[in-house]
Structures are given as structure tokens and as C-alpha cells.
Amino acid sequence: MAFSTHEHPHLPNLYGATAAPPPTPSTQPNPLSTSAAADTLSRLLHRLPPTLSLPTRLSSPTTPMCAPLISLSDLSSALLKNLRSSSSQPGFLQLTNHTIPSQLALSAESDSLSLFNLSRDQKSQYFPRNWPLGFDAADDDDDDDDVTESFCVDTSCSTESTELALTHLREFTRAMEKLGLEVVEKLSCAVGFENPFRDDPTRFCSLMWISEGSPGNDKPDMSSRFYPYVVGLQYQIRCQKYSVLADSGWVSVLPDIDSVMVTFGDIAQVWSNGKLKKVRGRPVANMGDGNNSRCISMSLLVTLPADSTVSPLLPRAVVGGNEDDEVNKDEREIDDSTRKREERLFNSFAFEDYAWRVYHERLHLKDPLDRYRV
């Protein structure tokens, strides 16, 4: 819009030649200086929600932290001890003495690399979108080859192409799912809730999320998709850092080679009624420090069917048990009053609605679970 070049007409003198000018704000009494107004303001501040906080600063992780290194056989007792001290429970850990062969992980990575060598049309054709499954780019309308791309497949790793066997990726996905279900069982023993997957395989589903990071980029990829899950697993094939969005903000993690990094998701936090800290979304692999090699991330998410309802699974009472069972012994040491009755910290909600919202909004600043807190 063009601005007029004409001079503005002079405003008439509404006060006369000798009239005093209108009072300025500095000469007026301050309405907030009275004690009554101050009391009103104080009451208003006290009525603000206690959870009101500033957004998490999305600064790049710096020095990698060391995630707790736990053997699979000791997972239940180690988790139970960590739960007693919130400072020692960051929402993720390294798992050793697992059953995943390193050669299988390498072969699955080769299968995954072949997917990213396909053309954009082949990716969309072989892996059609069926949310959340299929091929996804950060911006489908962008022809830039550098946009973030990912594949989401189920345990069968099914594809519309007869040329893509993906045998090793399928075997790796199913082995990781088996390990993930074992982690959930150990988790339920440590926290004290009934494992809903134990006797009903229809209560869970698994997704393998495959993405390729930008070579030489040591910053979190803000375009990565979020999807709710119970536990997430990533095999550490080589020396490679991850950026993890914990409740405290972004942190950098460098797991040991051949370990499996386990992250607790938002569903695990609700199930544990807030006892477990969580990781928002999947850990993001990055290859900074001048490393220009291709960076493939394979994340197995143990999650829920779309028609599920999410609610806290309050701790069950421990009755009897083998005195020599270390897990039961540790469980009996938990305060009995907590097991008798525990107040819910989350309201129940529909999983599909929640998953759709966090997937498309990709909330990084605000915790998506805040709206369901009691």
C-alpha cells in the first residue's frame, strides 16, 4: 500500500492559547499503587495453573551424557532402584546381554539403505501412505532432495514391490519386537502394574521407523515425526550420537556399541502414573564432528492399536511370592501405602486422537500430555 505524500493538516488548538496541556501519565495517580490493587494482582497470580512454565529451549545438545548401562537379566531390579531416585532415571537406558546379533543389525541396515536409494516415485509406489505406515517426506510439496525422509513399516515389512525382499530387515524387526515385549514385562514388574500385553497379543502392535539423517549435521532434526509408544529400541551398530528430547530438554547420548538404547515413551509414563520419565518422540541420530557417512536410524516402537484407550495402570498388590525371588523382594520394599491406594495423575484418553495430534502437530515446545494431567 502506497503512502500519501501530502502534508497532514495541523490539528486545531482545542485548549486555547492559555489553557494548560492535558495531564500526562506521569502526573496521574498509579491505580496499581494502592494496597487493594496489589492484593488483587497477588490473588490473580496465585490462581494461575501450577503447571504453567516457559517452553523448553530447543538448544543443540553438547557433551553426550552416559545413559544407564543395564543388563537385560537385571532390568527389573535396576529399574526399581532407579525409580526411587528421580535423578537417576532420565527416561532412557542402554541394554546389554540381549539376544540381537550384531550381524543381523548390519544386514538390516543394508536393507534399509536400499530403500533410500530408490527414486521418490518408487518410494511412494512401493510404500503407499496408510497412516502411520508408508513412505513420508518432511514436505511432500518440496522437490528438494535434502528434505527428511522416512519409512514406517510393520513387523512383516510388507511392500508393493516384488523386487524388495527385505528379509534381514524383517527378521531384525521381529527380533527387536520380541526384545521390546520382554522390556515391557520387566517394566511392569518394576513399577508394579499388570502387563496388558502378557496374555493378549492383540493389545499391542510394533512399528519399525527408518530414517536417514543429514551427514555432518550435529543438531536435532526438528522435522522428524512423533508417534506415541510404550518403549522404543535402537540398536547401536557403530559409534554414533543421538539427540533425545527428554522432559528436561534436548540431551545428547552416545550409547555403547552393540548395546540397545531403550527409551520410555509417553504411553509408558501414563501407564506408570507418572513414575517413569519419558522421551518425546524417537531419538534422532546425528553424525557431526566432520563425519560425512550416511546415517540410518532404525527405531522399533512397541505401541498400541488405534482403537486403544490410554489410562494409568495403578500398581497391583504383591501377594506371596518366592522369598528368593529378587524382584519380588525389591517390590515388597516399596511403601505399602502407595500400593493400597494411589491417586491418578492422568485422565484416560483415546489413543488414536492423541497419536494423530502429536504426529501432525509435531509438538516440541509443549508436552502433549499436559492436557490430560489431572
TrEMBL record:
Stored InterPro entries: DIOX_N, IPNS-like_sf
Region listing for Disordered, in residue ranges: 1-35
Short name of one Pfam family: DIOX_N
Annotated Non-haem dioxygenase N-terminal domain residues: 68-151
Biased composition (Basic and acidic residues): 1-10
Keywords for the protein's UniProt record, in alphabetical order: Iron, Metal-binding
GO molecular function (one): metal ion binding
Record's protein name: Non-haem dioxygenase N-terminal domain-containing protein
